[in-house]
Amino acid sequence: MMKDRIQQLLAEIQTFKAQNKEELEQFRIKYLGKKGVMSELFNEFKTVPGEMRKEIGVMLNDLKNKAQETLNEHKDLFESKPAASQTVNDLTLPVDLGQVGSHHPISLVRKEIIDIFSRLGFNVAEGPEIEDDWHNFSALNFPQEHPARDMQDTFFIEKNPDIALRTHTSSVQVRVMENTQPPIRSIFPGRVYRNEAISARAHCFFHQVEGLYIDKNVSFADLKQTLLYFAKEMFSADTKIRLRPSYFPFTEPSAEMDISCNLCGGEGCGFCKHTGWVEILGCGMVDPAVLENCGIDPKVYSGFAFGMGIERITNLKYQVKDLRMFSENDIRFLKQFRSAF
Ligand code: DAH
Predict the structure, then answer these.
(1) Is the CB of 302 under 6 A from ligand 1?
(2) Other beta carbons within 10 Å of 291
């Protein structure tokens, strides 16, 4: 009887398991192939008497669908790309990380500066970017008529001459000294603002790291040795430094520090304008009047301070010619700076 045959085939199909692609192909040929079981049955169907046609027809269609389903289920298993459910469960498969980002060069160099000074026992502090006149200027001994206070250099907030975007991180020195009694051994990284036209060599915002060391008997020799250590660690062990007398209102004596040009090794090249030296920071012994302004007794304590631009150090390390690149977020520029942080 045709009905019995269909039921028997249905059981066969539903319990079918292929071990490999070849067995599956044999299954397909046997049941769904041109000369296979299904087409044989459909041929036979033509001879089925009228009253049974409906029932047998439904059974036949069901059998064909089941055969197709069994085939499809097995296909997923043997396809070279595993089914989605399998991928998720297989923890040994390599992971697609997609696009991995990179650290901004300014972040990388800031981190390196912090690491170097932390090896000398300096900790890190930060202060606000919106400052008052006292912390940015007055406490640091800037005379009232000093040109750095001009509208030209400073961004004031809402025409209020007392509130401005800080022009340097030296303002954090004042805040830390006001709140801490020595010994103080800290660095202060942060963003600063100046009212400058934007060009390859100047920007209206950039980044600095300020350093401050206050204790009993701190001398200029301590300043020099600390900065020599920094230069050698930051650039290379054979880097030399030189200190040139300079002026800052908040240090006395004051100096600017050059390092031997790290491009030509001090021989002289276009980068160092054939002098063999490049300037990297300002420094000096904290002026006793500044200590006093911040509540520290200059008869008991002395100290040194220094300040450097992170962009400047980054330029020297990576030869970035145009300051604007640091803030344009051009991914072709940024992705060149990969590092394990
Ligand atoms: N604040 C100075 C500037 O922005 C840099 C500086 C010079 C900081 C000498 C210091 C220092 O602490 O002692 O140009």
Answers:
(1) no
(2) 21
Mutate to test the pocket of ligand 1, among 248, 285, 286, 311 (most ligand atoms within 8 A of CB): 248
What is the phi-psi region of residue 273: left when phi exceeds 0, alpha when psi lies from -120 to 50, beta otherwise?
Answer: left
Predicted confidence band at 191 (pLDDT cuts at 50, 70, 90)? very high
Q: Are residues 46 and 139 in the same domain?
A: no
Please work out whether the CB of residue 251 comes within 6 Å of at least one atom of ligand 1. Answer: yes
d(CA 171, CA 125) in angstroms, rounded, equals: 12
The domain in which residue 85 lies consists of: 2-89
Query: pLDDT tens across 160-171, in order?
Result: 889 999 999 999
Q: In the prediction, which pLDDT does 21 show?
A: 87
Same domain, 114 and 47: no
Q: What is the mean pLDDT of residues 113-129?
A: 98
76 within a domain of the structure (yes/no): yes
Residue 232 CA to residue 240 CA, distance in Å, equals 8
**What are 28's two structure tokens?**
């397909």
| CATH number of the domain residue 154 falls in | 3.30.930.10
The answer to whether residue 95 is domain-embedded is: no
Domain count within the chain: 2
| Cβ of residue 283 lying under 6 Å from some atom of ligand 1 | yes
Instruction: Check: CB of residue 183 under 8 Å from CB of residue 215.
Output: yes
Nearest-angstrom CA–CA distance, 39 and 28: 12
User: Is this structure's pTM higher than 0.85?
Assistant: no
